[in-house]
Amino acid sequence: MQLRYLLTFLCPAMLAVSQGTNSTTGALGDARPVRNNPVIGETWVASFDLPAVLGTVTAVASTIGINYTVDVTGLAVDRGPYKYHIHIHPVPESGNCTDTGGHLDSYVRGDSPPCDSALPQTCQVGDLSGKYGTVAGPEGLKEFNDPYTATNKIQLGYIGGRSIVFHDASGGRIACAMLEKVEVSTS
Ligand SMILES: *[C@@H]1O[C@H](CO)[C@@H](O)[C@H](O)[C@H]1NC(C)=O
Ligand SMILES: *[C@@H]1O[C@H](CO)[C@@H](O)[C@H](O)[C@H]1NC(C)=O
Ligand SMILES: *[C@@H]1O[C@H](CO)[C@@H](O)[C@H](O)[C@H]1NC(C)=O
Ligand SMILES: [Cu+2]
Protein backbone atom coordinates (compact mmCIF):
# COMPACT_ATOMS: atom_id res chain seq x y z
CA MET A 1 0.00 0.00 0.00
CA GLN A 2 2.76 2.36 0.94
CA LEU A 3 4.82 1.47 -2.14
CA ARG A 4 1.81 1.93 -4.37
CA TYR A 5 1.22 5.35 -2.92
CA LEU A 6 4.85 6.26 -3.42
CA LEU A 7 4.75 5.19 -7.07
CA THR A 8 1.60 7.11 -7.95
CA PHE A 9 3.15 10.12 -6.34
CA LEU A 10 6.62 9.77 -7.89
CA CYS A 11 5.84 8.76 -11.45
CA PRO A 12 4.09 11.95 -12.59
CA ALA A 13 6.84 13.94 -10.88
CA MET A 14 9.56 11.98 -12.69
CA LEU A 15 7.76 12.40 -15.98
CA ALA A 16 7.54 16.14 -15.46
CA VAL A 17 11.26 16.30 -14.72
CA SER A 18 12.21 14.28 -17.80
CA GLN A 19 9.98 16.38 -20.05
CA GLY A 20 11.53 19.53 -18.68
CA THR A 21 15.02 18.17 -19.28
CA ASN A 22 16.59 19.21 -22.52
CA SER A 23 17.47 15.90 -24.12
CA THR A 24 20.24 17.39 -26.25
CA THR A 25 22.07 19.09 -23.41
CA GLY A 26 25.43 17.49 -22.70
CA ALA A 27 26.29 15.52 -19.58
CA LEU A 28 28.19 18.64 -18.49
CA GLY A 29 25.26 20.91 -19.36
CA ASP A 30 24.89 23.42 -22.16
CA ALA A 31 28.04 24.88 -23.67
CA ARG A 32 29.05 28.10 -21.95
CA PRO A 33 30.30 31.21 -23.78
CA VAL A 34 34.05 31.78 -23.57
CA ARG A 35 35.05 35.21 -22.30
CA ASN A 36 38.70 34.74 -21.42
CA ASN A 37 40.62 34.23 -24.62
CA PRO A 38 44.11 35.50 -23.78
CA VAL A 39 44.82 37.53 -26.95
CA ILE A 40 41.92 39.01 -28.91
CA GLY A 41 42.74 38.76 -32.60
CA GLU A 42 44.99 35.70 -32.18
CA THR A 43 44.57 33.74 -35.37
CA TRP A 44 44.56 30.04 -36.14
CA VAL A 45 44.28 28.57 -39.63
CA ALA A 46 43.48 25.17 -41.12
CA SER A 47 44.79 25.05 -44.72
CA PHE A 48 43.29 22.68 -47.27
CA ASP A 49 45.33 21.91 -50.36
CA LEU A 50 43.38 19.17 -52.15
CA PRO A 51 41.57 19.95 -55.41
CA ALA A 52 38.37 18.68 -53.71
CA VAL A 53 38.75 21.15 -50.83
CA LEU A 54 41.06 24.07 -51.43
CA GLY A 55 41.30 27.04 -49.12
CA THR A 56 41.21 27.86 -45.44
CA VAL A 57 39.18 27.84 -42.27
CA THR A 58 40.38 30.75 -40.16
CA ALA A 59 39.68 31.14 -36.45
CA VAL A 60 40.20 34.52 -34.77
CA ALA A 61 39.97 34.85 -30.99
CA SER A 62 37.22 37.27 -30.05
CA THR A 63 35.92 38.77 -26.80
CA ILE A 64 33.32 36.03 -26.83
CA GLY A 65 34.50 32.80 -28.40
CA ILE A 66 35.97 32.66 -31.87
CA ASN A 67 35.15 34.27 -35.21
CA TYR A 68 35.41 31.79 -38.06
CA THR A 69 35.81 32.33 -41.77
CA VAL A 70 35.30 29.30 -43.98
CA ASP A 71 36.68 30.07 -47.44
CA VAL A 72 37.15 26.99 -49.59
CA THR A 73 36.53 26.01 -53.18
CA GLY A 74 36.65 22.90 -55.35
CA LEU A 75 33.68 21.21 -53.65
CA ALA A 76 31.86 18.99 -56.17
CA VAL A 77 28.24 20.15 -56.12
CA ASP A 78 26.89 16.63 -56.71
CA ARG A 79 28.57 15.34 -53.55
CA GLY A 80 27.21 18.06 -51.25
CA PRO A 81 25.96 19.49 -49.02
CA TYR A 82 29.16 19.38 -47.00
CA LYS A 83 29.53 19.31 -43.26
CA TYR A 84 32.59 20.62 -41.45
CA HIS A 85 33.56 20.01 -37.85
CA ILE A 86 36.32 20.41 -35.34
CA HIS A 87 37.66 16.93 -34.63
CA ILE A 88 39.64 16.17 -31.51
CA HIS A 89 42.96 14.86 -32.85
CA PRO A 90 45.64 16.28 -35.12
CA VAL A 91 46.03 15.08 -38.70
CA PRO A 92 48.70 12.34 -38.66
CA GLU A 93 51.77 12.22 -40.92
CA SER A 94 49.87 9.86 -43.24
CA GLY A 95 47.13 12.43 -43.74
CA ASN A 96 44.50 9.80 -42.90
CA CYS A 97 41.46 11.77 -41.71
CA THR A 98 40.09 8.76 -39.79
CA ASP A 99 42.81 9.38 -37.21
CA THR A 100 41.43 12.82 -36.34
CA GLY A 101 38.90 10.95 -34.16
CA GLY A 102 35.44 12.20 -33.30
CA HIS A 103 33.95 15.65 -32.97
CA LEU A 104 35.09 18.04 -30.30
CA ASP A 105 32.33 17.32 -27.79
CA SER A 106 33.49 19.16 -24.70
CA TYR A 107 30.14 18.92 -22.90
CA VAL A 108 29.62 15.24 -23.75
CA ARG A 109 26.27 15.36 -25.57
CA GLY A 110 27.03 12.73 -28.22
CA ASP A 111 26.22 12.68 -31.95
CA SER A 112 22.47 12.25 -31.62
CA PRO A 113 19.96 13.73 -31.72
CA PRO A 114 21.31 16.04 -34.43
CA CYS A 115 22.25 19.60 -33.56
CA ASP A 116 19.36 22.09 -33.46
CA SER A 117 20.89 25.27 -34.87
CA ALA A 118 18.31 27.34 -32.96
CA LEU A 119 19.94 26.06 -29.74
CA PRO A 120 23.67 26.09 -30.58
CA GLN A 121 24.61 25.81 -26.90
CA THR A 122 23.12 22.30 -26.91
CA CYS A 123 25.13 21.10 -29.92
CA GLN A 124 28.51 19.43 -29.92
CA VAL A 125 31.02 22.24 -29.57
CA GLY A 126 32.87 21.08 -32.70
CA ASP A 127 29.74 20.73 -34.86
CA LEU A 128 30.29 23.98 -36.73
CA SER A 129 28.13 23.11 -39.77
CA GLY A 130 25.35 21.88 -37.50
CA LYS A 131 25.32 25.23 -35.70
CA TYR A 132 26.09 27.58 -38.60
CA GLY A 133 25.08 25.74 -41.74
CA THR A 134 26.52 23.35 -44.31
CA VAL A 135 28.07 24.46 -47.59
CA ALA A 136 26.77 23.36 -50.98
CA GLY A 137 29.79 23.88 -53.23
CA PRO A 138 31.50 24.66 -55.47
CA GLU A 139 32.47 27.37 -52.99
CA GLY A 140 32.13 27.13 -49.26
CA LEU A 141 31.95 30.62 -47.80
CA LYS A 142 30.81 31.28 -44.26
CA GLU A 143 31.51 33.79 -41.55
CA PHE A 144 30.21 33.33 -38.04
CA ASN A 145 31.01 33.78 -34.38
CA ASP A 146 31.01 30.66 -32.26
CA PRO A 147 30.81 31.61 -28.57
CA TYR A 148 31.75 28.15 -27.28
CA THR A 149 35.21 27.54 -28.74
CA ALA A 150 38.35 28.98 -27.24
CA THR A 151 41.99 29.89 -27.75
CA ASN A 152 42.38 29.62 -23.98
CA LYS A 153 43.88 26.26 -23.00
CA ILE A 154 41.94 26.05 -19.76
CA GLN A 155 38.63 26.13 -21.61
CA LEU A 156 36.66 23.02 -22.56
CA GLY A 157 36.31 24.28 -26.13
CA TYR A 158 40.06 24.83 -26.70
CA ILE A 159 40.95 24.43 -30.38
CA GLY A 160 44.69 23.73 -29.97
CA GLY A 161 45.77 20.37 -31.37
CA ARG A 162 42.45 19.91 -33.15
CA SER A 163 41.60 19.51 -36.82
CA ILE A 164 38.90 20.68 -39.19
CA VAL A 165 37.30 17.88 -41.22
CA PHE A 166 35.05 18.25 -44.27
CA HIS A 167 32.47 15.54 -44.95
CA ASP A 168 30.54 14.98 -48.17
CA ALA A 169 26.83 14.11 -48.17
CA SER A 170 27.60 10.42 -47.54
CA GLY A 171 29.53 11.35 -44.39
CA GLY A 172 32.88 10.47 -45.92
CA ARG A 173 35.85 12.45 -44.61
CA ILE A 174 37.02 14.07 -47.82
CA ALA A 175 39.62 16.42 -46.34
CA CYS A 176 41.17 17.33 -43.02
CA ALA A 177 43.66 19.95 -41.84
CA MET A 178 45.12 20.90 -38.49
CA LEU A 179 44.29 24.19 -36.85
CA GLU A 180 47.63 25.96 -36.48
CA LYS A 181 48.37 29.17 -34.68
CA VAL A 182 49.61 31.95 -36.93
CA GLU A 183 52.80 33.33 -35.38
CA VAL A 184 52.87 37.09 -35.69
CA SER A 185 56.22 38.39 -36.85
CA THR A 186 57.42 41.31 -34.74
CA SER A 187 60.16 42.53 -37.13
C1 LIG B 1 16.57 23.36 -24.19
O1 LIG B 1 17.46 24.21 -23.48
C2 LIG B 1 17.45 25.54 -23.90
C3 LIG B 1 18.45 26.30 -23.09
O2 LIG B 1 19.68 25.76 -23.23
C4 LIG B 1 16.05 26.14 -23.75
O3 LIG B 1 16.06 27.43 -24.27
C5 LIG B 1 15.05 25.29 -24.50
O4 LIG B 1 13.76 25.79 -24.28
C6 LIG B 1 15.13 23.85 -24.03
N1 LIG B 1 14.21 23.01 -24.79
C7 LIG B 1 13.37 22.18 -24.20
C8 LIG B 1 12.50 21.37 -25.09
O5 LIG B 1 13.31 22.04 -22.98
C1 LIG C 1 34.18 39.01 -34.34
O1 LIG C 1 33.00 39.27 -35.07
C2 LIG C 1 32.16 40.26 -34.51
C3 LIG C 1 30.94 40.39 -35.38
O2 LIG C 1 30.35 39.18 -35.58
C4 LIG C 1 32.90 41.56 -34.43
O3 LIG C 1 32.10 42.53 -33.78
C5 LIG C 1 34.19 41.39 -33.65
O4 LIG C 1 34.96 42.58 -33.70
C6 LIG C 1 35.02 40.25 -34.27
N1 LIG C 1 36.20 40.04 -33.44
C7 LIG C 1 37.44 40.03 -33.95
C8 LIG C 1 38.55 39.84 -32.96
O5 LIG C 1 37.67 40.17 -35.12
C1 LIG D 1 42.82 5.22 -42.56
O1 LIG D 1 42.79 4.65 -41.28
C2 LIG D 1 41.73 3.73 -41.09
C3 LIG D 1 41.72 3.32 -39.63
O2 LIG D 1 43.01 3.14 -39.15
C4 LIG D 1 41.88 2.56 -42.04
O3 LIG D 1 40.81 1.66 -41.87
C5 LIG D 1 41.89 3.09 -43.46
O4 LIG D 1 42.15 2.03 -44.37
C6 LIG D 1 42.96 4.16 -43.63
N1 LIG D 1 42.82 4.76 -44.96
C7 LIG D 1 43.84 4.86 -45.79
C8 LIG D 1 43.54 5.52 -47.10
O5 LIG D 1 44.97 4.46 -45.52
CU1 LIG E 1 33.27 15.65 -38.71
From TrEMBL:
<keyword id="KW-0049">Antioxidant</keyword>
<dbReference type="GO" id="GO:0046872">
    <property type="term" value="F:metal ion binding"/>
</dbReference>
<protein>
    <recommendedName>
        <fullName>superoxide dismutase</fullName>
        <ecNumber>1.15.1.1</ecNumber>
    </recommendedName>
</protein>
<dbReference type="GO" id="GO:0005576">
    <property type="term" value="C:extracellular region"/>
</dbReference>
<feature type="signal peptide">
    <location>
        <begin position="1"/>
        <end position="18"/>
    </location>
</feature>
<keyword id="KW-0964">Secreted</keyword>
<keyword id="KW-0732">Signal</keyword>
<dbReference type="GO" id="GO:0004784">
    <property type="term" value="F:superoxide dismutase activity"/>
</dbReference>
<dbReference type="InterPro" id="IPR036423">
    <property type="entry name" value="SOD-like_Cu/Zn_dom_sf"/>
</dbReference>
<dbReference type="InterPro" id="IPR053257">
    <property type="entry name" value="Cu-only_SOD"/>
</dbReference>
<comment type="similarity">
    <text>Belongs to the Cu-Zn superoxide dismutase family.</text>
</comment>
